[in-house]
Amino acid sequence: MQRRTSLTQLTAxxxxxLTAxxxxxxxxxxAQAQAQATLDEVTRLVLPPALGRVGPALVSQIVMLGSAxxxxxxxxxxxxxxxxxxxxxxxxxxxxxxxxAIYLGLSIGVRALLNWVGPxxxxxxxxxxxxxxxxxPALKMVYFSLWDIFRNLLLAAxxxxxxxxxxxxxxxxxxxxxxxxRLARLAPLPGAQPxxxxxxxxxxxxxxxxxxxxxxxxxxxxxxxxxAWVAAGVALTLYAxxxxxxxxxxxxxxxxxxQWEAADSLALSFTEKMRHVVGPQALRIxxxxxxxxxxxxxxxxxxxxxxxxxxxxKAGTRxxxxxxxxxxxxxxxxxxxxxxxxxxxxxxxxxxxxFNNGR
Length: 359
Description:
Helices cover 75% and strands 0% of the residues. It contains 13 helices and no strands. Helix 7 (192-204) packs across helix 9 (228-253). By secondary structure, it is an all-alpha fold. It is flat.
């Protein structure tokens, strides 16, 4: 009966392949055959039983309670939670006893599991020292190709694009309305200008991460249950509207005062001034900062993953857990963010050139 492929055999195969490659590139041809024979003896006869013998020691290292040290840097683990509970209820003895019991139960359970699983699945059976196998059994592994990774990231990228479009479009509409309310000398509502200024300061002065938390968990506290999609869309829309209001207001204020006076001499209303005189000039100034902020919104959608929204970054994290290839996965994620942001910046430069040529 064919034996199960173990981690020892996998390690031996990799060691033979790597060392043979190095030997072929460094040693002369006359010494390569002897080196290959020595490597086969070590990797097929010495290494498997050695790994089997050190199994108990490895198990002891695995169950070491070193994770408690992470509590010193405020990592939310068991020891840190016990100290936090002590500071709130002043029952240090009971908290330490319960934490110790949990640590003991975890260590005993993990040790028993590894001692049972290790000899059967991890280290494999010890080979017969009197018989050198002619060849190692074929290894069967589940492999994720680069296209599989990229294809799954493409499926998640559509939600990143959709969320960024909703945030920028909704933020643009709300921001434009707030801008007009702040610039109008005769606002339809009394006190509109200070309210708009306070709104802008509030959302510009707080973290987008906290806004996402409040939109998702805060509404649930008052009995309004919303999905992660709705919460992310609302939070990013409000965030974008505050910044776009500030950006566009700065572009309007940058228009020379003489242009406003010329519009006044023509007896133009506020709407006509913004449409025919101030607006076209402010649009040329507003293109670079607006597009730059749009790029920031695209990258800011990654924060929506903290409330369970599956977008590009969240999908990359899940694929990394499944494939154990973090460098490849996150390199693909970075490439896809670049492919999303670069066309926006290129279109901005083209739009600026068209404005300059149209003067």
